[in-house]
Amino acid sequence: MKIVIGNDHAAVALKMEIMEYVKSLGHEVINIGTDSIERCDYPVFGEQAGRAVTSGDADCGILICGTGVGMAIAANKVKGVRAGVCSDTATARLMKEHNNANILTFGARIVGPELAKDIVKTYLEAEFLGGRHQGRIDMFWEIEKGK
Ligand code: RB5
């Protein structure tokens, strides 16, 4: 898969580790995050990753900031994005199986590198279950259309 990865200054080291890990799993990485620890604004990266996913340039996204929360909020402002913050592997699986999340976010100040890798692997390997969950995804679209 083609995976867009973004981060702010709080998550440079973890982003580097996650990029290498994702490549080692056989995926292609598009790095849109900062590689510098100079302070920057996470909404810029959240939006950029969201647009990469909704345009089809990337199959899905991984966003890392201090907590993962700001990135999720920013990415979810892009129509068609379903981003969720995750700090455990059960959520990583269910956010794909039930919510068909197209962006995974987590916090470099919250999860350590080993757990982060497990979360990423679980998320990437999980599959959307469809069925009754599809109707709920359709309801997201209705909300976005303002109905
Ligand atoms: C940056 O200090 C921090 O606010 C940011 O990385 C993130 O945690 C926001 O949600």
What this model shows, in words?
The protein has about 150 residues and is an alpha/beta fold. About 50% of the residues lie in helices and about 15% in strands. The chain is built from six helices and five strands; from the N terminus they run βαβαβαβαβαα. It is globular and about 40 Å long. The N and C termini lie far apart (about 35 Å). D-ribose (RB5) binds near residues 8, 42, 65, 66 and 67.
Radius of gyration: 14 Å
Specify the helix fraction band.
40-55%
Write out the distinct hetero groups bound to the structure. Answer: D-ribose
- Count of helical segments? 6
The profile of the biggest β sheet is: 5 strands, parallel
Low-confidence runs of at least 5 consecutive residues: none
User: Average pLDDT value?
Assistant: 98
Q: What order do the strands of the largest sheet run in, or round the barrel if closed?
A: 2-1-3-5-4
Number of E-state strands: 5
| Silhouette | globular
Fraction of residues in β-strands: 15-25%
Termini separation:
33 Å
The H-and-E topology, N to C, reads as: EHEHEHEHEHH
Q: Helix/strand/pairing class, anyone? A: alpha/beta
Element layout with pairings:
Elements: E1 2-7, H1 12-24, E2 28-31, H2 42-55, E3 60-65, H3 69-76, E4 83-85, H4 89-97, E5 103-107, H5 113-125, H6 132-145
Parallel strand pairs: 1-2, 1-3, 3-5, 4-5
Helix pairs in contact: 1-5, 2-3, 4-5
Residues 8, 10, 42, 65-67, 69-70 line the site of D-ribose.
